[in-house]
Amino acid sequence: MDLQILYDLKDCLEDAAGAGTDAVTDDFRLKSAVERFASLASGGGLFAQVYREACALLTAPPEDRPARLLDALDAVAEAVREYGATGVPGELAPLPPGGGGYVRAAYSELKETIAALDAAGSARIILLREQWTAHPEFFGDPRVMPHVVGALGDTHEEMEELLAAFLTKRGKRAVPYLKEGFDPAGADGKREMERRVYWVARLAGADENDWLLSVLPESRGAVRETVIAALGVSQDNAALLRGLYESETGKSRDAALRALACMDDPESRTLWAEELERRPDCPPFLEGVDSALAADMAAQALHSAYDEALGRGKNDLSQSELLTLAHAVYAAYGKYSDAMREEWLWCAGHMAEFDKLRPGWNVRHWDMSGAELLEKCLMETVLWNPCENVCALAQDLGAKYPNWFLGAAVLADLLAHPAEAFDRYGKYIVKNGLLRRENASERANRIQIMHALAAVRIDRENGRHIPFTRKDALNGTSAGMRYRLKEFDPRWAETLGDAKVNRDGAVFDVQGAWTMTKMMFQMEWIE
């Protein structure tokens, strides 16, 4: 039996899949391969099925050709499995799960997308955005996915955002492409290989732990740092990570410390506690990590930083002292545990003292007090992690210490109970009149509410939403995120737009300074 005829037909069908089905009827090589295959088809069975599907492809109308081509390829694959041979010694084994099948698009339709992914510069980003909007399925096609992976070395910020959208949408189906041709040494000198590791860990987590362990011995430089940080996806790696923390140096050692913050075993907890005592620069490695260990360590770092600041006996802080304080606060973003709750209660009782901790005369680009750092921290924590416990904490602190935390409570209700937020907090807004003026306490409450409401953004693409920036647990980098608000009470705009309501002090400390005028313009857009 001459199986070369089968392989010739297989090659022709695969070429047709790459070139598109429009030219199938004019493909003389395919027609010739089908004619020669008739000799095998006379024996019946799978060969007859292959021949029928191939003939049906050649006679199918244009709209049916993609489906007919897939049927023919399936029939050929079945025949190869049954009768074919690879020419390689050893047992046949099934291939690992792939990234999906072909989309019904000719290569000519994909060519422009592929060229844009392979190009350099920023002009191609417009085309890729348009293609992503019009044909998101193109980016999961096996003809396109290798080029998506190849573009991971691009350092353009907008390109990184697009690639993140492509790969997130594809999910675990992108992992085989990320692993294909991986070079653990990162010899090309670009970011592609380390980004591949990052995305394998982010998309598949502990499911790819064996692969991460397999590439670790040969990994070098930035790739090694990324592999070590990615080992935090599995609790089974705790002992290995402690060993790496002892043996590695520089950024690889720091990566091991970040990964250890994801562990939950007593030995890793002890190591982290000791490092916090020894190294004041440790808290940044907790940023973005949401484990119980990270929350408890962040609480410890926060307490130490503020206790030490108060113990200095001075209120004007130097640049380095402020950075130590700020890093401890940033490490607490989004975290909750019993220890963290106790720490918040301790901090809330000392806010008047913390408010006196301010930048010294020679510190530039800093205008927040120690108390304002914590106010910002609780609002960010609500955005990062609006779970029941965090929202309850914000509401509790908002009720007991409204001058500092009412904004966080309002923000928690905007996310969890948007329909009820106005009824709960609208009463704090005082309208001035001949016989009634806003007092100092009421002014503080109003400003807190304004801080929360000024977080809301509105645009034509995303509607009503609250944007924020969150740290990535794997590498500590910042990533933009948003919450879409299903409901937003229009009475907020009506009340705050009233000429009798004061508008002073409306600066939103979470995302930067937003004047009341800007906020009101956005709220009027709701109508």
Explain this structure.
- The protein has 527 residues and is mostly helical.
- It contains 26 helices and five strands.
- A hairpin with a 3-residue loop joins strand 3 (457-459) and strand 4.
- Helix 3 (45-59) packs antiparallel against helix 4, helix 6 runs parallel beside helix 8 (157-170) and helix 16 runs parallel beside helix 18 (338-348).
- The longest helix is centred in the middle third of the chain and has 20 residues, at 292-311.
List the helices and strands and how they pair.
Elements: H1 4-19, H2 28-41, H3 45-59, H4 65-83, H5 107-118, H6 124-134, H7 145-150, H8 157-170, H9 175-179, H10 192-204, H11 209-215, H12 221-230, H13 238-247, H14 250-260, H15 266-278, H16 292-311, E1 316-317, H17 319-331, H18 338-348, H19 351-354, E2 358-359, H20 370-384, H21 388-400, H22 402-416, H23 421-425, H24 440-453, E3 457-459, E4 463-471, E5 478-484, H25 491-496, H26 516-526
Parallel strand pairs: 1-2
Antiparallel strand pairs: 3-4, 4-5
